[in-house]
């Protein structure tokens, strides 16, 4: 257990170092805590992730999805446009997420997203997550059914020259804040079929902007995910499975559909992704399973092509994910003990009784219809 805690601290240290190593700066605007791409994998799926929700991206799409995780997951994401322009104040957008399974039925998570325009302003969103499987507490037999909650903090401040990305979190006269709440359900109907339902910004928080406040609208997402095993004939080319995802999103009285597909290749070593929704199309790829003794590293990339004419609608998204691997000894120690169902004796059951030094009480006896021997 002590070794596991030390490994957990190392994950935090590595991810925090990655955050402070700023990959790039970009010339783009997306203010007022608007929706952005917080994971290259979800971006490559067209943000259709509510039903799948099987990695740290679930923190932003379905807070109940983190119960699917069996290992500690850390994720760093950086977003940049595909070109830059002069005379436009550049911004940086980066996020960090961490999900940690407490038990086989509970998980918690933390996420942070920073968006700042140089010498103008910056926005920070902090998120705390808790999720719980509820099927152990309900009287009927059902597959994995989970509930999850997010508590979010929104922090806005003018960004003056020389300020770093944490200044808006330190308080002061210039910092304004608001708080939001998300709720979600995740239902693993079978190994192949998953369902998700979330309501984001339940309380319609009045988030600060440049010179005023505005309310984030309630967003309801309904998601389905289906994993299709590869036909045997395609095993020869390394195709593992195809996952199709569909999200329906209701916001401000209007529906939007997001569709995404992921193709896993060569025992999940590579992944190809594509997605489409009403505002953009995306394509991505993943490189996974680069392992050491204690960690597994994944690298994901996606390109976003917005339908608008604005050059800022085309973006690159890069994510680095670190998973903490359990040793065989730890996994065996933490595995639940096999439960033995009690057996009730009934008519015609045969008991063999051996009584030491009393042969007259030893022998095989049959239970009669009245439960006696």
Low-confidence stretches: 7-32, 164-172, 334-339
The top level CATH class name of the largest domain: Mainly Beta
Please outline the major beta sheet. 14 strands, antiparallel, barrel
Counting DSSP E segments of at least 2 residues, the number of strands comes to: 18
Class based on secondary structure composition and strand pairing: mainly beta
Instruction: Walk across the major sheet and give the strand order.
Output: 1-2-3-4-5-6-7-10-11-12-13-14-15-16
Strand content: over 45%
Q: Which CATH architecture of the largest domain?
A: Beta Barrel
> What integer is the average pLDDT?
78
CATH superfamily of the largest domain: monomeric porin ompg
CATH topology of the largest domain: Porin
Shape: elongated
Helix proportion of residues, in percent? under 10%
Q: What count of structural domains?
A: 2
Helical stretch tally = 4
Span between termini: 51 Å
Rounded to the nearest angstrom, the radius of gyration is: 26 Å
List keywords for this structure.
373 residues; mainly beta; Porin; 2 domains; 14-stranded antiparallel beta barrel; two-stranded antiparallel sheet; 4 helices; 18 strands; elongated
């Amino acid at each position: 257990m002590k070794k596991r805690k030390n490994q957990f601290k190392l994950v935090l240290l590595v991810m925090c170092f990655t955050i402070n190593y700023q990959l790039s700066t970009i010339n783009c605007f997306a203010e007022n805590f608007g929706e952005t791409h917080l994971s290259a994998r979800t971006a490559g799926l067209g943000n259709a992730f509510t039903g799948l929700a099987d990695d740290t991206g679930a923190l932003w799409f379905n807070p109940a999805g983190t119960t699917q995780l069996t290992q500690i997951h850390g994720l760093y994401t950086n977003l940049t446009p595909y070109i830059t322009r002069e005379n436009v104040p550049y911004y940086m957008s980066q996020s960090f997420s961490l999900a940690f399974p407490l038990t086989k039925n509970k998980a918690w998570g933390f996420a942070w997203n920073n968006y700042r325009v140089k010498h103008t302003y910056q926005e920070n969103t902090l998120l705390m997550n808790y999720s719980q499987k509820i099927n152990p507490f309900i009287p009927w037999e059902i597959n994995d059914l989970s509930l999850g909650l997010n508590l979010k903090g929104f922090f806005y401040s003018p960004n003056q020259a020389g300020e770093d990305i944490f200044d808006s979190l330190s308080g002061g006269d210039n910092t304004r804040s608001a708080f939001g709440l998300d709720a979600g359900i995740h239902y693993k109907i079978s190994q192949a079929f998953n369902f998700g339902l979330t309501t984001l910004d339940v309380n319609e928080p009045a988030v600060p902007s440049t010179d005023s406040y505005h309310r984030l609208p309630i967003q309801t997402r309904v998601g389905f995910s289906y994993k299709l095993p590869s036909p045997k004939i395609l095993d020869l080319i390394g195709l593992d499975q195809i996952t199709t995802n569909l999200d329906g999103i209701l916001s401000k009285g209007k529906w939007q559909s997001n569709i995404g597909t992921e193709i896993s290749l060569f025992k999940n070593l590579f992944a190809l992704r594509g997605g489409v929704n009403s505002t953009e199309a995306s394509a991505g790829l993943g490189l996974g399973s680069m392992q050491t003794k204690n960690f597994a590293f994944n690298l994901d990339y996606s390109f976003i092509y917005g339908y608008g004419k604005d050059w800022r609608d085309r973006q690159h998204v890069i994510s680095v994910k670190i998973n903490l691997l359990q040793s065989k000894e730890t996994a065996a120690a933490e595995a639940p003990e096999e439960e033995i169902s009690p057996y009730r004796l009934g008519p015609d059951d045969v008991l063999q009784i051996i009584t030491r030094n009393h042969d007259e009480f030893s022998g095989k006896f049959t239970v009669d219809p009245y439960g006696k021997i």
